[in-house]
Each structure stands twice: as C-alpha cells, then as structure tokens.
Amino acid sequence: METKVITISREFGSGGRSIGREVAKRLGIPFYDKELVDQIALESGFAPTFVEEHGEHAPTRSRFAYAFSHQGVPGVMNGMSTADFLWSIQCNVIMQLADKGPCVIVGRNADYILKDRKNCLDVFIHADMDYRADRIVRLYGESEKSPETRLNEKDKRRMINYEHYTGRVWGQARNYDLCLNSGTLGIDTCVELIVAMAKTKE
Amino acid sequence: METKVITISREFGSGGRSIGREVAKRLGIPFYDKELVDQIALESGFAPTFVEEHGEHAPTRSRFAYAFSHQGVPGVMNGMSTADFLWSIQCNVIMQLADKGPCVIVGRNADYILKDRKNCLDVFIHADMDYRADRIVRLYGESEKSPETRLNEKDKRRMINYEHYTGRVWGQARNYDLCLNSGTLGIDTCVELIVAMAKTKE
Question: Apex CA A105: angle with CA A103 and CA A111, to 5°?
Fold first, then answer.
C-alpha cells in the first residue's frame, strides 16, 4: 500500500509541526518545513527569514508593498505584490516536492495547493487556547505580549492568508480528511493516528 | 480506562449514524438516536415524527409557530416557541442520558449540550457531496428532488439549528476532538478510529 503525501495545517501552538516531524520520521519519508522555506527563498530571491515571516501571513495590500517588492526583485515579479509573488513560487515548490514522492508538508496551504491530487492525506491540528498558550510559553518563552495575544495574532494572519489565497474558510472540517484536537487527544495519539491513516486512506 | 460519552455530529448522508451504531455495538454501550427522539417526544408531549422533523432543523420564528405551539401543549411552554421548547427538553434528556454512563449520542447538538463535561469524545463526520449523494440514493432511494438538493436542504437546516442554539459555526474543527472524512477514510476506518479514541482521550 502506497504511503501518501501528508499535508499538516495547524493552529499556532497546537504541536502540528512536532507531530509532522515525528510522523515523517516514523514513516521514513521527507519532512518539509524549514526546507520548504529555503527552497522558496532560493527560487524567489528573498531571504529565508523574509519568506518565513511572509509566506503564511496576511497579504499586504498597501501601495508601499508593491513599490518595495519591485525594488527588491526588479523585473521579476511582473507587477505582482510581494505576497502574490511568494504565493506563486510556493505553489510551484510544493507541487514539485509532492511529485518526488511521499512526504510530510507542514503549513503553507499545501492542502489547497495539492487539492486535485488523489494521493494526499490532509490533516488539521488544533487545540484549545489554554493548551496552546501553555505550550508556546514552555517552547518559546515569555514575551512582552500575553500568550493569548500572540496566538490570536498568529492565528488571524494564517486565517487571512488561507482565506485570501484559497477562498476556503480556515479550520473547516470539510477541507481535511482528518482533524485532531492535540490538546484532548495528546500529541503521541495524533502521531499514531496519522501514521495509521497514511496507509489506509481509500 | 473509562469509556467516554461519544457525541457524533454529521453531515447528512455521511454515514455518521451507521458509524455511531457500530461504535456503540463494539464498545457494548447504549446508542441513542431514535431512542432520543422517543424520549424527547415523551417529555414534550409531541409526536415522535414531529420531534424527528423539528429537533435538528431551523427554528421557526413565525407567529403561527407560537400560536400553534400554545394550542398543542396549552400552559406548558411558558411562551416559548415550539423549537425553543423542544430545545429545552432535548438539553434535559441528553444530560440525563449522559449521566447514566458511557453511550453514543448521534446528532441533536449533543457536543454543545455536554460541552462542560470532561468525559466526552466529540466527533464530526463529513464527506464530499458526490459520496453523500451516491450514498443517500442507495440507502433512501430516488425522490423528486436531486440528491444534491436534498443534501443542501438538510445540511442548511442542521447548520441553522446548530448556529442558532449554540452560537458556534457548524463544521468548524475546533468544536470537536476528532473530525473524519468518511468518504476518503472509509466507514470502517472511522469506526475503528472512534473506538480506539473512546478509550484514549486524555
């Protein structure tokens, strides 16, 4: 039975990235997260930190963004905004990676970009605010902003980006094969479920 | 390890009811679907067919509904509409059933009604339109309306009822522990996953 391309979308702080890494390890397939950023950076000419910051965030609609983007990569972006340009590169990179074979891709709207492929298992990981707030403080430490503010800001930016580029509603069960609450089910259980499902989706 | 109260919400035609029945059978716990309707009918004084038709559907806001409801059960409904009266009975019945011990409850917004209890596993079953259309024609036969129209009408009524009484958005992953696409994962796999999860939720 063929292992699938697994896309993992996630709420910030839900453990989606850790779950994806462990799933890839157990299945012995590539895990694309930072690697994806590096590849998009390479193809776009932007710095990895810039891609990391803007690739999953709300598209900027200001004139400044257009002006800046043209200055950044003159003659390459054909009048597209920085966000739209990054999106087109992101689509190409994700489709190329999925062509190579089974893998785990975290974030970057990969569920939508690969929606016409039959061999994908699309997963959404979410958890309650309390669970995620506790988790980000343990993992990333405290900051000036409250954990709840950090979560809300990040969630909102991902949501706007997703809805802008896909026309779908963020967090709707129907966009995925499997949605898991990592707070109530536990990270390990989520990993086990996804590993089991990666080989059984009809 | 204690088995949980399992609530199953579902899109019409996704197989949620069949999945719930099989889960209850495998876990050896009660399954409440028609039984729930009968209990609500008994406590409300309405006919089971009336409860079945209105219990998960859009609340009626017309004056006629109020007038009719008072005629139907004079002096009992304290000025509530029929839909609101059924909702209050439904809440009581579902909480009483959950008090009795582990069980499977299909539909009727049980995920929301039992939201403050720790021992619930909340599941949402959904599937693509094509899969559900094919399934309802096989199970319930053809009708004057196209399967897609029947699905859209039923989904819409459940959605309005859910959003009216819970203030939540229907089909949002965050309302559940586990959301499963029965069309891509298969009915049997959904049953196995829920049975496994019923005993492992933290």
Answer: 110
